[in-house]
Design goal:
Elements: H1 10-24, H2 39-49, E1 55-59, E2 67-72, E3 82-87, E4 107-108, E5 111-113, H3 121-136, E6 145-150, H4 161-167, H5 169-172, E7 176-179, E8 186-188, E9 191-200, E10 202-211, E11 215-216, H6 226-239, H7 248-256, H8 261-267, H9 273-277, H10 282-292, E12 295-303, E13 309-310, E14 313-322, H11 328-339, E15 346-354, E16 357-358, H12 364-376, E17 381-387, H13 393-397, E18 402-405, H14 415-421, E19 428-430, H15 431-449
Length: 450
């Protein structure tokens, strides 16, 4: 049975309704220029925010790839500014694997179901509601508050944050940025630990072209089949295990966590890390492995023309995520090591090179988050962490903004469930989390900018 909005307080009801509409807009970004259609959600958010005396602007560098910026101007140009940034695009789905319509935005059992529910339309909608509440209240901050609903986050930001930072710097300039991910709760013996994403791994995507010689599929003996060679390439990449690297971002996360002392020591020891990972819950272990290793994931393959034709080319797209301090030459050396004698038989093309970024902890924004979360989740403690995936925060870090990923989710969403829903099946978020996020963003804005 679908839930009724009765019994949901006004703020939670606003976020819930807005999230449902964003999900139903189905702004699916498959990486092509013509996908996304984020103009649908930019129009929706403009309609929601209009009428509060806000300064609203849209930017459309490519047809349909629209971002919306709203501002509450501060009284003091020298005061710090804060941006609340959420993206409006979502990744594709395999609908047959879902228990419900992934673009239905249904409210069932106190949860909103749909693609983007936690990545990151929940934050995009709760940021909009917090922003609107402040505008409607007549709040006059010392520093400027900016809301950015940005396009194209799910495909490297070419038509979104990357483009805005390159072409509309004045419109998006901010001292501090809050975006995704974050806000899941990790239980500790003395209270909740709340991870704040202060750093992220880099992206080094490559396309590997494997050449072969065409021939008739009925006579495969001693042929040069590109698909067979590609299978060996994929196998070597999957088997390749670079050594662990314990960098500062990972060390800070472990030090801030409530781990068993022996486990904590092992998690920052390259020689003992592998054994420690096996003792952790699967989602935590995956995160820990990703944060301490350069990873290679062959994810897309194209090749072959017909069942009875031996393929003369296969193309592999490989997702490589880099650690702080690593650069292209380091990854090329790893590819040589992983592929061995096959390296000479393939052509490697660079698709994206986006190094790791981080933000400092000793900032007024960190202090504001500490004060606000102490009130919303008594007894909790913030823990800095690094995300293995890329976010739009990286673009703002590179132009000088301190950028964190943070939200505030309820106890209902455990860490393992949260991680499994990112780009996964049956994505959903509970109404209490939506309310908490709206309260968080409103309170942080007031604390930092008033």
């Amino acid at each position: 049975m679908r839930d009724s909005p009765d019994g949901i307080d006004q703020a939670a009801g606003e976020v819930t309704d807005l999230l449902q509409h964003l999900i139903r807009n189905s702004c699916v970004n498959d990486g092509t220029e013509g996908s996304g259609h984020e103009a649908r959600s930019a129009d929706l958010l403009r309609s929601y925010l209009e009428g509060s005396g806000l300064d609203l602007e849209t930017y459309e560098p490519h047809p349909g790839r629209t971002s919306l910026i709203a501002r509450i101007e501060g009284r003091d140009p020298a005061a710090p500014s804060l941006m609340l940034m959420g993206h409006t695009d979502v990744v594709p789905v395999t609908e047959a694997r879902w228990s419900m319509d992934p673009f239905g935005g249904e409210l069932v059992g106190g949860e909103v179901w749909g693609r983007g529910a936690v990545d990151m339309l929940d934050l995009t909608s709760s940021m909009a509601v917090a922003f609107s509440r402040l505008a409607r209240s007549g709040w006059k901050p010392r520093g400027t508050l900016i809301y950015l609903a940005v396009a194209d986050e799910e495909a490297l930001g070419a038509w979104g944050a990357d483009w805005l930072c390159a072409h509309e710097r004045d419109a998006i300039a901010a001292d501090y940025v809050l975006t995704e991910p974050g806000g899941t709760r990790i239980a500790g013996s003395d209270g909740w630990r709340l991870p704040v994403v202060t750093a992220e791994k880099g992206t080094y995507w490559v396309r590997i072209r494997v050449a072969g010689t065409p021939g008739h599929g009925s006579q495969p003996w001693h042929t040069d089949n590109a698909l067979v060679t590609a299978a060996h390439v994929v196998s070597r990449l999957a088997d390749y295990q670079p050594g662990a690297q314990i960098h500062e971002a990972w060390r800070r996360f472990v030090e801030g966590g409530d781990w068993d002392p022996e486990v904590k020591a092992a998690l920052v020891d390259p020689d003992r890390l592998e054994h420690a990972l096996a003792t952790l819950p699967l989602a935590v272990g995956r995160m820990a492995h990703a944060c301490t290793h350069t990873t290679f994931s062959p994810n897309v393959v194209h090749g072959g023309k017909k069942t009875n034709v031996i393929p003369d080319e296969v193309v592999l797209d490989v997702d490589i995520r880099t650690l702080p301090g690593q650069h292209g030459a380091d990854i090329e050396a790893m590819l040589d090591e992983a592929l061995g004698d096959l390296r000479a038989r393939v052509a490697v093309e660079l698709v994206a090179d986006d190094p790791s970024t981080s933000s400092p902890l000793e900032t007024p924004l960190w202090d504001s988050l500490t004060r606000v979360t102490a009130g919303l989740v008594p007894g909790s403690a913030l823990v800095p962490t690094m995300t293995a995936g890329a976010t739009d925060a990286r673009f703002f870090r590179r132009i000088g903004a301190t950028s964190y990923g943070f939200g505030l989710l309820s106890e209902r969403i455990g860490f393992e469930q949260y991680m499994s829903m990112f780009h996964g099946d049956d994505e959903r978020v509970d109404v209490e989390s939506l309310r908490l996020c709206a309260d968080l963003f409103e309170a942080v804005a007031v604390d930092l900018l008033s």
